[in-house]
Amino acid sequence: MKVKAIGLLASIMTLCACGSGQMQQEQVQQYPVIQVNKSSIELQESYSATMKGRQDVEIYPQVSGTISKLCVKEGEQVKKGQPLFVIDQVPYQAALRVATANVRAAEAQVETARLDYDSKQMLFDEEVISEYDLLQAKNALAIAKAGLEQVKAQEINARNDLSYTEVKSPANGVVGTLPYRTGALVGPSMLQPLTIISDTEQMYIYFSMTENDIRGLIRQYGTPDEVIKSLPAITLRLNDGTEYEQKGCIETISGIINPQTGTVSIRCVFPNEKRLLFSGGIGNIVLPQQETDAIVIPQSATYEIQDKIFVYKVIDGKAVASEIVVAKQNDGKHYIVRDGLTVGDKIISEGVGLVQDGAEVSIKE
What we know:
Elements: H1 2-27, E1 29-31, E2 33-35, E3 38-59, E4 65-70, E5 77-78, E6 83-87, H2 90-125, H3 131-164, E7 166-168, E8 173-175, E9 185-186, E10 195-210, H4 211-221, H5 224-230, E11 235-238, E12 249-257, E13 263-271, E14 282-298, E15 302-305, E16 308-315, E17 318-326, E18 334-339, E19 346-348, E20 361-363
Parallel strand pairs: 1-20
Antiparallel strand pairs: 2-19, 3-10, 3-14, 4-6, 4-9, 5-8, 6-7, 8-10, 10-13, 11-14, 12-13, 14-18, 15-16, 16-17, 17-18
């Protein structure tokens, strides 16, 4: 009986030991692990942007009068020098005729004064008249010439005023709204322009970068001029979420930081032959940035606690929670690690939400 009892006890102990070993083995979880290395990655940073034509020219009349003819329609594409409006020309034509007549009269007065002077010069040479009489004739001629110059200037002004009655486009572009129609009284002191001509063959796209972002680019490329030369073509994402079919480039980087926002204004240029972009529109500039020799890890290998990002390093078969510092820019799938990891570290790449700090883990092949 004692032998049987001892055997039974041994069997129970053996089973318990086997069960304990199986439980311990089951607690060692397997996870996929990656080894940290350096690589290159291209990121795309998006910035809010506003659109503006190469030049938006407000058209104001230079003379007063009523509009007698409207030569264009809203949205029409016009060329430089093309007539837009005609202001009533009748009073300005009459003023020009008066000015021209005054010039002819002044020219006649000059000729008369010259004849008088020449005659008195001969009489003075023959000692018939005094020098005083000669000087009077000379001064009369000078006054007549001055009067002629004065009326000639008035004629030029009258001619210019007449030309201003035909309001022409100062540049190639597109006609904006036309708030004034035929018969409306307009003048140089009006508050609202006749229209706005937008030169939209090329569009200026403006966006802003923070001081830190622009300094990062300058450190990467050397100078602001080198940033402009070295950055690849940029993409414009329109307000409806679609990408504009043509690429643009950065043209200027402002040298002034806005003290209120701490940002630097940047201007890009995009071609607009099909007139798909409109002055005053909004969108987003997508700026590619190349990172070389960077530690790049998948975001699935990280977890976040109170705005801090962690990974699990595998050290001596155990998962060790480690805080890392990542770059602000990312592609939504990867992080660029600035601090907390070195080349050669091994981290758990998936399932980090199920891992406990200090737990034993095995590498999943």
